[in-house]
Design goal:
With about 500 residues, this protein is an alpha/beta fold. About 40% of the residues lie in helices and about 20% in strands. It contains 16 helices and 23 strands. β4 and β5 (about 40-45) form a beta hairpin. The radius of gyration is 24 Å and the shape is globular. Bound molecules: nicotinamide-adenine-dinucleotide. Belongs to the aldehyde dehydrogenase family. This is 2-aminomuconic 6-semialdehyde dehydrogenase. Its EC number is 1.2.1.32.
Length: about 500
C-alpha cells in the first residue's frame, strides 16, 4: 500500500550507502538520535560484509577503469566541482551537521562546513602544483645518473572517521585520497552519518565516475568498520578516532602489511607563563578547553599556570567559563552545545565523579544543567574546571573528551616542560608567553606533533598534522597527505 503524504512526511529519513554510483539500502538499520533532545534524526543503513565487499570491488574497478590515469589537473577540477557542490547546498550541510551533533549553528557554518569546502579546494590546488624530488648521482667510475620520483596512486583507500568534527575530518581524508588518484571506501561515525550522506549526493550530482567514491554506514567492531579494515583489497587505511581503536585496527591490518595513517587521542596541555598577555591567555584557554564542548582532539584538558598568577588565573577562567551559554543550536545566545550522545555523557560524568574521589576541588561545573524543557532529554553537561589533583590522577592522565580542564601551578620552565611531556599522548600543546625566545625554546622541547604559541586551533592545511606517542602514526596535511596517499617510485636513469 502507498503511504499517505502525511505519513510519508512523518516517516524518518533513511540514510543509505552509496556504492558504485548508486544509493543502496540494507535490511538492517539503526537509529541516529539528536543529542539535543533525544529525538530521532534518521534511520541509518548498517552495511554487512557483503555490502563492504561490493564497495571495495566497485572502488577497485573504478580505479582500473581509468580514475588512476586521470591527470592531476583533471582531478583538481573534480575536487573544485565537489567543493562548489557543497557550497551550493551549504545550508543543508549546516543543518545535517547540527542535527547530528547539536553544535551551535555558527560553529557549523564557520568551522565544519567551511572547512569541508576548504579541504577540497586546498588539495585541488596542491595537486595541481605538486612537484617531486630530483637528484643527480655521480659514481666513482665517472658515470652520471638522474633520479626522479613518481607519485602513483596507492589504489583503494579505506577511510574511517569519528563523530566530533564529522564533515571536516571526513573530507580531510577523502579530498587528498581522490586528489592523488585513489578510489575510496569511506565510513563516517555511526553517530554522525548525515553530512557524509549529503556529500555522497554531491559526488553523484557532479557526476563523479561510479565507484570512485563509495560510502558505507555502520558500526566499528565486528561490523562495517572492521569489515573494511579486514578487506584484502584495501591498499591503505586512514583512521581518526580513539587510540584504543587505532591499536585494534593496527592488529587487523598487520597480516596484510597495509599502509596506515592514524590521528588518535590526546591529553593536551596549555602552559601559561606569568609574563603572558593575561586576558589573551584566559580567552585562549576558554577556547582550547570548551570549544565543541571539549570534543576536539586538540582541546586542552591539562592547564599549567605559573604560580605568581595562578590564583588570579583560576578566578578569571572560572568567571569567563561561567559566561558560556549551554543550550540548543538554534538559540543565537548558545556558545556550547551538548555532548554527542547519552553514552558519551555517561563516560564524561564518570570522570566528573572520579575527579571528586581523586580529591579535586571543583572550581565550576561538575554536573548536568537543568533546563526544564526538552533539552533535559539531551546529552548536556556543564563546562567544568578542577584544581588540586596530582599529575598522576586518572583525570589528569586519561583523555576525557568533554568540556573539562584541570589547572595546576608550576614554578620553573624545566619543570613544566617535564610535566607536559610526562604523558602517554603527544598530540598538541599551547604556550602562552610574551617572551619570544622562551616560546621557541619551550616549543622545541615539547613532545607533540603540534605546538601553538599564543594561539590555539589555527590550522594552515599545508602544514603537517598528527601526533606522537599514543596520539598517532604519520602526518597528514599539505605534501604529507600527498605522500601518504601515493606510492613513491624512484626512477634512476644512467645519462652519461
Ligand atoms: P572511535 O575510535 O570510537 O570511532 C572512530 C571510528 O572508528 C568510527 O567510525 C567507528 O565506527 C570506527 N571503529 C570503531 N571500532 C572499530 C574497529 N574495531 N574497526 C574499525 N573501525 C572501528 O572514536 P570516536 O569516539 O568516534 O572519536 C573520538 C576520538 O577520536 C577521541 O579519542 C579523539 O581524540 C579522537 N580524535 C582524534 C583526532 C586527531 O586528529 N588526532 C581528531 C578527532 C578525534
Amino acid at each position: 500500500m502507498n503511504q499517505e503524504p502525511a505519513d510519508a512526511a512523518r516517516a524518518p529519513r533513511l540514510l543509505r550507502h552509496y556504492i558504485n554510483g548508486e544509493f543502496v539500502a540494507s535490511a538492517t538499520t539503526f537509529a541516529d538520535v539528536s543529542p539535543v533532545d533525544g529525538t530521532l534524526v534518521a534511520q541509518v543503513c548498517e552495511a554487512d560484509a557483503a555490502a563492504v565487499d561490493q564497495a571495495v570491488r566497485a572502488a577497485r574497478a573504478a580505479q582500473l577503469a581509468g580514475w588512476r590515469d586521470t591527470t592531476p589537473a583533471q582531478r583538481a577540477d573534480w575536487l573544485h566541482r565537489i567543493a562548489d557542490g557543497i557550497q551550493a547546498r551549504f545550508d543543508e550541510f549546516v543543518a545535517a551537521e547540527v542535527a547530528d551533533t547539536g553544535r551551535p549553528l555558527t560553529q557549523a557554518r564557520t568551522l565544519d562546513v567551511a572547512r569541508g569546502i576548504a579541504n577540497f579546494r586546498t588539495f585541488a590546488d596542491l595537486i595541481r602544483t605538486a612537484n617531486s624530488e630530483f637528484f643527480e648521482t655521480h659514481t666513482p667510475d665517472g658515470s652520471e645518473y638522474i633520479n626522479y620520483v613518481r607519485r602513483k596512486p596507492l589504489g583503494v583507500i579505506g577511510i574511517i572517521s569519528p563523530w566530533n568534527l564529522p564533515l571536516l575530518l571526513f573530507t580531510w581524508k577523502v579530498a587528498p585520497a581522490l586528489a592523488m588518484g585513489n578510489c575510496v571506501v569511506a565510513k563516517p561515525s555511526e553517530e554522525t552519518p548525515a553530512s557524509a550522506t549529503l556529500l555522497a549526493e554531491v559526488m553523484h550530482d557532479v557526476g563523479l565516475p561510479p565507484g570512485v567514491f563509495n560510502l558505507i554506514h555502520g558500526h566499528g567492531p565486528n561490523a562495517a568498520g572492521e569489515f573494511l579494515t579486514r578487506h584484502p583489497d584495501i591498499s591503505a587505511i586512514t583512521f581518526t578516532g580513539e587510540s584504543r581503536t587505532g591499536s585494534t585496527i593496527m592488529k587487523t591490518v598487520a597480516d596484510g602489511v597495509k599502509e596506515i595513517s592514524f590521528e588518535l587521542g590526546g591529553k593536551n596541555a596549555a602552559v601559561v607563563f606569568a609574563d603572558a598577555d593575561f586576558d589573551a591567555a584566559v580567552e585562549g584557554v576558554v577556547k582550547s578547553s570548551f570549544t565543541n564542548a571539549g570534543q576536539v582532539c586538540l582541546c586542552s584538558e591539562r592547564v599549567y599556570v605559573e604560580r605568581p598568577i595562578f590564583d588570579r588565573f583560576v578566578a578569571a577562567l572560572k568567571a569567563r567559563t561561567e559566561m558560556l551559554c549551554v543550550g540548543a543550536p538554534d538559540d543565537p545566545a548558545t556558545t556550547m552545545g551538548p555532548l554527542i550522545s547519552r553514552g558519551h555523557r555517561e563516560k564524561v560524568l564518570s570522570y566528573f565523579r572520579l575527579a571528586v574521589e581523586e580529591g579535586a576541588t571543583v572550581v565550576t561545573g561538575g554536573g548536568v544543567p537543568q533546563f526544564g524543557d526538552a533539552r533535559d532529554e539531551g546529552a548536556f553537561v556543564q563546562p567544568t574546571i578542577w584544581t588540586g589533583l596530582p599529575d598522576t590522577a586518572r583525570c589528569v592522565t586519561e583523555e576525557i573528551f568533554g568540556p573539562v580542564c584541570h589547572i595546576a601551578p608550576f614554578d620553573t620552565e624545566d619543570e613544566v616542560i617535564h610535566r607536559v611531556n610526562d604523558s602517554a599522548y603527544g598530540l598538541a600543546a599551547s604556550i602562552w608567553t610574551t617572551q619570544l625566545a622562551r616560546g621557541h625554546r619551550v616549543a622545541k622541547q615539547i613532545e607533540t606533533g603540534i605546538v601553538w604559541i599564543n594561539a590555539w586551533f589555527v590550522r594552515d592545511l599545508r602544514t603537517p598534522f598528527g601526533g606522537a606517542k599514543l596520539s598517532g602514526i604519520g602526518r597528514e596535511g599539505g605534501r604529507h597527505s600527498l605522500d601518504f596517499y601515493s606510492e613513491l617510485t624512484n626512477v634512476c636513469v644512467r645519462v652519461a
